[in-house]
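notes to self, project folder thing:

trying the whole complex as one job this time. last attempt i did each chain seperately and stitching them together was a nightmare. three parts in total, labels are on each line so i dont mix them up again. if this works i'll redo the older ones the same way
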Amino acid sequence: MDEKHKKENPLMDFDLLKKLVVSIGDVSEITGVPTRKIRYWEEKGIIKSEKEGEGTTRRYNYLNIKKILLVQELIEEGFTLDAAAKKVEKRMENISEVFRKLADNPTSDE
DNA sequence: GTTCTCACA
DNA sequence: TGTGAGAA
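result (full assembly):
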Protein backbone atom coordinates (compact mmCIF):
# COMPACT_ATOMS: atom_id res chain seq x y z
CA MET A 1 0.00 0.00 0.00
CA ASP A 2 2.53 2.60 1.08
CA GLU A 3 5.40 2.73 -1.34
CA LYS A 4 6.82 6.04 -0.18
CA HIS A 5 6.91 8.22 2.87
CA LYS A 6 4.52 11.04 2.20
CA LYS A 7 4.20 12.24 5.77
CA GLU A 8 5.88 11.80 9.08
CA ASN A 9 4.73 8.86 11.12
CA PRO A 10 4.30 9.34 14.88
CA LEU A 11 5.43 5.77 15.36
CA MET A 12 8.72 6.59 13.68
CA ASP A 13 9.59 9.61 15.73
CA PHE A 14 13.27 8.80 16.00
CA ASP A 15 14.14 12.33 16.99
CA LEU A 16 11.99 11.91 20.06
CA LEU A 17 13.44 8.51 20.82
CA LYS A 18 16.98 9.84 20.60
CA LYS A 19 16.16 12.63 22.99
CA LEU A 20 14.19 10.37 25.29
CA VAL A 21 16.11 10.14 28.52
CA VAL A 22 14.52 8.96 31.73
CA SER A 23 15.58 8.04 35.24
CA ILE A 24 15.80 4.56 36.72
CA GLY A 25 12.29 4.82 38.16
CA ASP A 26 10.77 5.44 34.75
CA VAL A 27 12.78 2.60 33.24
CA SER A 28 11.50 0.24 35.92
CA GLU A 29 7.96 1.26 35.05
CA ILE A 30 8.54 0.82 31.33
CA THR A 31 10.56 -2.37 31.44
CA GLY A 32 8.84 -3.77 34.50
CA VAL A 33 12.26 -4.37 36.03
CA PRO A 34 12.70 -3.21 39.64
CA THR A 35 15.16 -0.39 40.19
CA ARG A 36 17.17 -2.69 42.43
CA LYS A 37 17.60 -5.14 39.57
CA ILE A 38 18.64 -2.43 37.12
CA ARG A 39 21.33 -1.17 39.50
CA TYR A 40 22.36 -4.76 40.11
CA TRP A 41 22.85 -5.39 36.40
CA GLU A 42 24.79 -2.23 35.95
CA GLU A 43 26.90 -3.19 38.92
CA LYS A 44 27.76 -6.43 37.11
CA GLY A 45 28.64 -4.44 34.01
CA ILE A 46 25.81 -5.88 31.93
CA ILE A 47 24.22 -2.53 31.26
CA LYS A 48 25.54 0.99 31.34
CA SER A 49 23.88 4.26 32.21
CA GLU A 50 24.87 7.87 31.82
CA LYS A 51 25.15 10.35 34.64
CA GLU A 52 23.22 13.55 34.44
CA GLY A 53 25.69 16.43 34.48
CA GLU A 54 26.14 17.27 38.11
CA GLY A 55 23.52 14.89 39.41
CA THR A 56 24.34 11.35 40.43
CA THR A 57 21.10 9.94 39.16
CA ARG A 58 21.33 7.40 36.35
CA ARG A 59 19.86 8.46 33.06
CA TYR A 60 18.71 5.94 30.49
CA ASN A 61 18.02 6.51 26.80
CA TYR A 62 16.09 4.39 24.31
CA LEU A 63 19.09 2.16 23.61
CA ASN A 64 19.67 1.54 27.32
CA ILE A 65 16.01 0.69 27.86
CA LYS A 66 16.08 -1.61 24.87
CA LYS A 67 19.13 -3.32 26.27
CA ILE A 68 17.48 -3.82 29.64
CA LEU A 69 14.41 -5.20 27.90
CA LEU A 70 16.52 -7.67 25.93
CA VAL A 71 18.41 -8.82 29.01
CA GLN A 72 15.20 -9.29 30.94
CA GLU A 73 13.65 -11.38 28.15
CA LEU A 74 16.72 -13.60 27.84
CA ILE A 75 17.00 -14.15 31.57
CA GLU A 76 13.35 -15.10 31.78
CA GLU A 77 14.01 -17.68 29.11
CA GLY A 78 16.56 -19.37 31.30
CA PHE A 79 19.73 -17.55 30.35
CA THR A 80 22.12 -16.28 32.95
CA LEU A 81 23.21 -12.66 33.26
CA ASP A 82 26.53 -13.26 31.54
CA ALA A 83 24.97 -15.29 28.76
CA ALA A 84 22.15 -12.80 28.30
CA ALA A 85 24.62 -9.93 28.33
CA LYS A 86 26.65 -11.48 25.54
CA LYS A 87 23.61 -12.03 23.34
CA VAL A 88 22.30 -8.56 24.09
CA GLU A 89 25.61 -6.99 23.18
CA LYS A 90 25.39 -8.71 19.82
CA ARG A 91 21.84 -7.52 19.31
CA MET A 92 22.70 -3.99 20.40
CA GLU A 93 25.24 -3.72 17.61
CA ASN A 94 22.56 -4.34 15.00
CA ILE A 95 19.92 -2.35 16.82
CA SER A 96 22.09 0.71 17.27
CA GLU A 97 23.20 0.50 13.65
CA VAL A 98 19.69 0.21 12.25
CA PHE A 99 18.43 2.80 14.67
CA ARG A 100 21.11 5.27 13.65
CA LYS A 101 20.42 4.61 10.00
CA LEU A 102 16.69 5.12 10.34
CA ALA A 103 17.09 8.16 12.49
CA ASP A 104 19.64 9.76 10.20
CA ASN A 105 17.94 8.79 6.96
CA PRO A 106 14.22 8.08 7.49
CA THR A 107 13.45 8.80 3.83
CA SER A 108 15.30 5.78 2.57
CA ASP A 109 13.19 2.98 1.21
CA GLU A 110 14.81 -0.35 1.71
C1' DG B 1 12.29 10.72 43.87
C1' DT B 2 17.53 9.05 43.86
C1' DT B 3 22.06 7.21 45.71
C1' DC B 4 24.98 3.82 48.48
C1' DT B 5 26.32 -0.21 51.69
C1' DC B 6 25.48 -4.46 54.44
C1' DA B 7 23.33 -8.63 54.71
C1' DC B 8 20.39 -12.60 53.45
C1' DA B 9 18.02 -16.31 50.74
C1' DT C 1 20.63 -14.11 41.05
C1' DG C 2 17.89 -10.93 43.19
C1' DT C 3 16.02 -8.38 47.16
C1' DG C 4 15.35 -5.96 51.96
C1' DA C 5 16.34 -2.46 54.98
C1' DG C 6 18.72 1.56 56.65
C1' DA C 7 20.84 6.09 55.94
C1' DA C 8 21.93 10.36 53.32
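what i see at first glance: Chain A has five helices and three strands.
need to look closer tmrw
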